[in-house]
Design goal:
372 residues; alpha/beta; Glyco_hydro_1; hydrolase; Glycoside hydrolase family 1
Length: 372
């Protein structure tokens, strides 16, 4: 079984200057600046050695579209060499490289021509994918996109992410476009022999029995719609929390409910079992983690969720792997560096890595499940 961690480029690389996010961080539209961050772009070899010492055998990372295509249609071969070097280092360390091709950020020039709002812009992303294939990606698994519903809803409903719009019509269009783009890329990658999927954010919705139709509708929108509209070889599950459906839809009853969401380890098992029943495809947990400064709680969270995942496996669900979010404390979008998801910390001045006890807890999971 694959046991490892996940990250995304803008959150860990540092100085990701060609993106829409960097632009809006710089002009103040976004509250927090990512800056140099944990500088994994320069320090990836050191980070891979930490992964190796921890006995981890998988790492999900993002190949940064915005670095590789800094100008419309122009491929930066130096940046492709960088990611090929990262992949080679992982393979040499016995760590399965699992690249994601797109995780929220757009090149600023693509943002200026309306990004994924327009299907005619797909050609740029396809050219990026073709360039990666021509260079030869020494990987088995590829994730095309990350959390399409989350991106579309935060960018086109809640106005938290660029382009900060509020339109259900645009939300629906962009979501459909991203899913269609995934299918195009899936076919290209599949023809080259890769095992392909995307990472979907799954939420377990709970409510009183009378609201069962509401929970089913929410489940369809957030969980099942992306799966139904796409082609994939395995189910990539990002799971963090269970949602109180009453509070989510703004019911007056919500006033008696303390929280919109809560942590429920059984949710990871239920989702894995349900998705396998629906699609008969193996499951990979592509993200699962918790924001906490109490690392003993992170260890508890990790062990409880992994235990539930193993119950799903015993119940017949083929589990490819468990990737914890995140390898390192990083830039958490509209929360800046005020979130702590990593099993590794870092000094913001020296960038020195600080190995937390939870890293050794994940190491124990890796040791026990290496041959399963």
């Amino acid at each position: 079984m694959l046991i490892g961690t996940s990250t995304s480029a803008h959150q860990v690389e540092g100085n990701d200057k060609n993106t829409d996010w960097w632009h809006f961080e710089s002009n103040g539209r976004l509250k927090y600046k990512s800056g140099s961050g944990c500088m994994q772009y320069k320090l990836y070899k050191k980070d891979i050695q930490i992964m190796k010492k921890l006995g981890l055998n998988a790492y999900r990372f993002e190949i940064n579209f915005s670095r590789i295509m800094r100008s419309p249609g122009i491929i930066n071969q130096r940046e492709i060499k960088h990611y090929k070097s990262l992949i080679r280092e992982l393979n040499d360390a016995g760590i399965e490289p699992i690249p994601t091709l797109w995780h929220y950020t757009l090149p600023m020039w693509l943002y200026n021509i309306h990004g994924f709002e327009r299907k005619e812009n797909f050609s740029y992303f396809i050219k990026y994918v073709d360039a990666l294939l021509e260079s030869g990606l020494d990987v088995k698994y590829i994730l095309t996109i990350n959390e399409p519903v989350i991106y579309a809803s935060k960018a086109y409903l809640s106005r938290e992410y660029p382009p900060f719009k509020r339109s259900y019509i645009m939300f629906n269009r962009v979501l459909n476009n991203i899913l269609a783009l995934h299918n195009e890329v899936y076919d290209i990658l599949k023809a080259s022999g890769y095992t392909v999927s995307f990472a979907n954010n799954f939420m377990e919705f709970k409510s009183d029995a009378i609201l069962y139709p509401v929970t089913k509708a929410l489940d369809y929108l957030f969980n099942q719609r992306p799966m139904i509209q796409t082609r994939f070889d395995f189910v990539g599950i990002n799971y963090y929390k269970t949602i109180d459906a009453l509070r989510f839809i703004g019911s007056k009853i919500r006033r008696s409910r303390k929280r919109l969401w809560f942590i429920d380890p059984t949710g990871i098992r239920k989702i894995a079992e349900r998705e396998y029943k629906l699609f008969k495809k193996p499951v990979m947990i592509t993200e699962n983690g918790v924001d906490t400064v109490d690392d003993s709680y992170r260890i508890k969270f990790m062990n409880e969720h992994f235990s539930e995942l193993m119950k799903a496996k015993r119940n017949g669900v083929p589990i490819l792997g468990y990737l914890h979010w995140s390898f390192i404390d990083n830039f958490e979008w509209n929360f800046g560096y005020n979130r702590n998801y990593g099993i590794i910390g870092f000094d913001p001045i020296t960038k020195r890595r600080i190995i937390k006890p939870s890293a050794f807890a994940l190491k124990q999971i890796a040791i026990k499940n290496r041959k399963t």
